């Protein structure tokens, strides 16, 4: 199977601080890949380098066979990114934001209007006339999801995509991601909700202090370490015993 996302020796330094330390990844087309780690481990920095919004200090990125160094614009047309914090122009109304995104990607909005309506119905979005400044975090998150999914990108990068979503919308998103994966879309996602990773991801990589400390299928990790993905994650990343911490409180 072809590779959709390839990172080789990816490193990012901010001064003397090494945020991401010489990591390599190979994610196949159509795969749902989980990228897990505690806060500050380097997940978001890695996504920013993989999507071309942050230049690595060293290392290479290839998306769908294209080098990020040479084909950044072409790559950005083919991928979709949902950041952990939805950053949307506050002065726009919801429908204006969607039209703005379609114009950036040179898509005729009338051609995708039906798809936008279907996505809005699925996520229960009935507030496209509202100003973004009047929307809650969850409302913005759903609007951001629609702005990405309406384009049907070949590779999806999702940074904590279910944060702020109600239970029904989170379920809709999970089912949609499975459907898109079956159709060949590659999904690279971070999540702190390990049950989601355990149920959805074919493979996961665990990053801690900027380094990948484990990478395997969920079943392989369970066979090796014995226990749930949450137990394994804490075993590999927790530096203090949780019971001892709780007892001391």
UniProtKB/TrEMBL annotation:
UniProt xrefs under Pfam families: ABC_tran
Domain ABC transporter: 5-234
Protein name: ABC transporter
Top-level division of the source organism's lineage: Bacteria
Keywords, sorted A to Z: ATP-binding, Nucleotide-binding, Transport
An MF annotation (GO) of this entry: ATP hydrolysis activity
Family annotation (InterPro entries): AAA+_ATPase, ABC_transporter-like_ATP-bd, ABC_transporter-like_CS, ABC_transporter_ATP-binding, P-loop_NTPase
Record-linked SUPFAM superfamilies: P-loop containing nucleoside triphosphate hydrolases
TM region positions: none
Organism from which the protein derives: Fervidobacterium thailandense
